[in-house]
Amino acid sequence: MKTLLYSALFVAALFVVSCGPDLKIQADQAMNDLIEELNAVGLSVAVVKDNKIVYTGAFGAKNIDEGTKIGTDDIFRIASISKSFTATAMMQLYEQGKFDLDDDAGVALGIHMRNPNYPDIPITYRMLLTHTSSINDTTGYFSYTVIDPLRTPEYWRAYNQYEPGTQYQYCNLGYNLLGGLVEIHSGERFDLYVKKHIIDPLGLHANFNVDAFDRAEFVSLYEYEDEQFIDSPDAYRSRAAELENYVMGRTTPIFSPTGGMKIAPKDLAKHMLVQINGGIYNNVRILSAESVTAMQTPHDYPQKTEDYGFAIRTTYNLIEGEAMKGHTGSAYGLYSAMFFEPEKKFGFVMMTNGYEAKRGENGFLTIQSDVINALYNIFINK
Questions:
Q1: N- to C-terminal Cα distance for the chain?
Q2: Distance between CA 322 and CA 360 in Å, rounded?
Q3: How far apart are CA 100 and CA 129, in angstroms?
């Protein structure tokens, strides 16, 4: 009996040695090391492998003054990754036949939306989705009046000199306009549409409406200025007063369809799994496989400079040897990233609430690149 016991223990010891150290311990240590090395306030991450969330972790300060620590359920405003929710909503409505991607988007909006240099060329849904509309953010992006010739004499400033559909320029106003189009085509307020048709079916704790949360859930965001971290309370400013005079299809930007989603990394990973799995997560279909392909396929245009689809870009620079698809975000001191490999069924979500921003040679911020590559090496490329 004693011999058998020793034999079993020996086999168990060999098993532990062959598998290496516990991956969670490795990942936790790597993330803590990166917070210190990169001078970040805090960090929260999630890893998907083989179509499953295999790891979540939260590190560092949730609120510096209160001395609280981030938890894996805590909520971040994720900035421009929010565009993927807006594009998902648009593709759901497209599947219902509410519009064609090459329709004139100004018709539904009730705005004569034309680049004055090319008055005969309509601005289409596809152009707004792919940042090729020739609209810019010069005059701001929280009001539709800036592009309306009937309300803004200098509306022309919101347009670039080139022909719509021929060049790429990242445009937050374009996605705030898409938020209004979600309302017009669905008859539902933007935040409520996204909750009913995306958030609730996926079982997420998320919302574009900041007042839908207990404020204790929010991770404080910090801008790095003059070698110190400054709190950014406007990131979670209540919109209750503005909602009292809300006008569908006009005041939609108060929810910021371009950047205002609030969510934790583990739930954003579930949203990412919809893209990885051809429109389905947990047996719930959110999009058709065709719509997912359209979102992930880089758009072709005459003077192409970016591999950007519908709120999903393709990059070969984030992880060497991998074609990753996803999006980044930055606002109020928040830096986020969501990237995945749909064929190999893995992906990563990371969010930091404050960091001394530095950009690497690959074009990504060091914290985005270093965190994702560390997790890749621990969970995927081990």
A1: 37
A2: 18
A3: 13
Cα→Cα distances 197→189, 190, 294, 343, 380, Å: 12, 11, 19, 26, 32
Residue type at position 370: D
Q: pLDDT per residue over 230-250, tens digit each?
A: 999 999 999 999 999 999 999
Token pair listed for 67: 């001395």
C-alpha to C-alpha distances, 34 to 9, 178, 221, 245, 318, nearest whole angstrom: 36, 37, 18, 45, 17
CA–CA separation, 194 and 113 (whole Å):
25
Place of tokens 């080139």: 162
pLDDT band at 157 (very low <50, low <70, confident <90, very high): very high
Residue corresponding to tokens 């079993």: 8
In whole angstroms, give the CA distance from residue 312 to residue 316: 13
Single pTM value for the model: 0.93
Would you give the DSSP letter of residue 80?
G
Q: What is the pLDDT of residues 81-114, one digit of tens each?
A: 999 999 999 999 999 999 999 999 999 999 999 9
Q: What is the DSSP string of 82-134?
A: GHHHHHHHHHHHHHTTS--TTSBHHHHHTS----TTSTTSPPBHHHHHHT-SS
SS3 content of the chain, % helix, strand, coil (to 5): 40, 20, 40
Given a cut of 50, is residue 45 above it in pLDDT? Answer: yes
Question: What is the number of other CB atoms lying within 10 angstroms of the CB of residue 35?
Answer: 20
Cβ–Cβ < 8 Å for 139, 158: yes
pLDDT band for position 21 (50/70/90)? low
C-alpha to C-alpha distance for 349 and 53, rounded to whole angstroms: 10
Amino acid present at 177 = L
Nearest to 153 by CA among 199, 116, 193: 116
Residue 218 CA to residue 353 CA, distance in Å, equals: 10
Q: Is pLDDT above 70 for 3?
A: no
Side chain identity at 365, as an amino acid letter? L
pLDDT above 50: residue 26: yes
